Amino acid sequence: MHSSQLLAKYVVDMGPSATSPESREAALRCVLDLLSAAAAGFHESGTRAVRAMVRSQYGAGPAEIWFTGERASASGALLCNSAAASALDLDDGFRMARGHPGAAAIPSATAALPEAGGSAEGFLAAIVAGYEVGLRVAMGLPGYAPSGAWSPFAAIAAAGRVRNTSADHLAHAFAIAAQCAPSLPGLAGLMGSDVKEGIPWGAATGMAALQLAESGFTGPLAIFDDPPLFANEHIVAGLGGEALIGGTYFKPYACCRHIHAPLDAYAALAERHRLSPSSVESVEVHTYSATFNLSNLPAPRNLVEAQYSVPFCIATLALRGKEALLPMDASAIDDPAVRAFARCVTIHRDATIEPMFPAESPARVVVTSSSGRFESPVTMPRGDPADPLSWSDLQGKFMTATRHALSSVRQRNLLDAVDRLRDGDLRPLRVALGAALGD
User: What is the DSSP track for 328-357?
Assistant: First the structure.
């Protein structure tokens, strides 16, 4: 049996580990976290542009475009909702995939609901399936690829599970996407545009592949078993065992995960030694080499570039506090004090930290100030499974991240809807997501 068929069989059968209480709870946490990212990113210019394009090109349909009161085709709604979820780099991630499954899997599951219906349990199982398949394909790619290159597979699995797609059609959908999905270079020089990692377009490609396969279109089923293209042992090894969704990390800050450990390390030093920003002369960040793939501009031109800058994010936290990164405010970009502090931040490759990546994403920070030189221990970022954000933390993140996007009533409605989802009722979440905020 080909690897594409084994993945399809997993999605259709969904064994005990995938539907366990632990997997269900992990899926609920992922839903709550993604609502933070999507609501916070709703008003971003790139998100608005996607909605405008979808209105023009995709037409009306049954699937909810979150927070608008509008509906579109499944692919159109998926594009809009995934764009909102990934706009601010606040969406969840998985270490060994080096990317973000939630912004593909969860919008895909919701986009499939109107045509297929489904229960709360089925919806949560679909999310588990989306994460499992997307992450496995990511880990089977030769080298690093941005999330948009493997988000199609998360979309196919999540939407296909909701739609009760047959195993044969799922296998062909995976194969179609493997040959037709985006292949994005992850270069620092390309960071700064709304494309970012291409998650929305990748997910929409997955939805198209699924619908093509359901209509009888075929793909090369053996494609995952071609060694130059994929390491299929990483795709299928342990399939059906402990669900990967349990290894998801959640972000306390709206920026690239490579920046989180430096932020936590700096914040701890500043608090412990009562360092005022005006006393800081230099900040050295010692970390792994992948951090150098970021643009790291001390004076970014827009919020997207800011999300990929270690110096700028540290400067923003130092001068404006942690909430200024949940999410970032565009006003910081033109703040001369933030830019001046950012120019004092340097990044250094640490040979002792390098082997820890990608399983971990640590950093060590050294601050020189007028009162002395202070060094952090090697610090792991908050939100990893080893140091997770609690349910209460995720609720707090939601309230802070959406404070400018949602009224207090809408915040409460969404949190209540997730509580109802936990109790087995999916309808309140769909109603809350479908209600309009307005552009």
Answer: B-GGGGG-HHHHHHHTTEEEEE-TTTGGGT
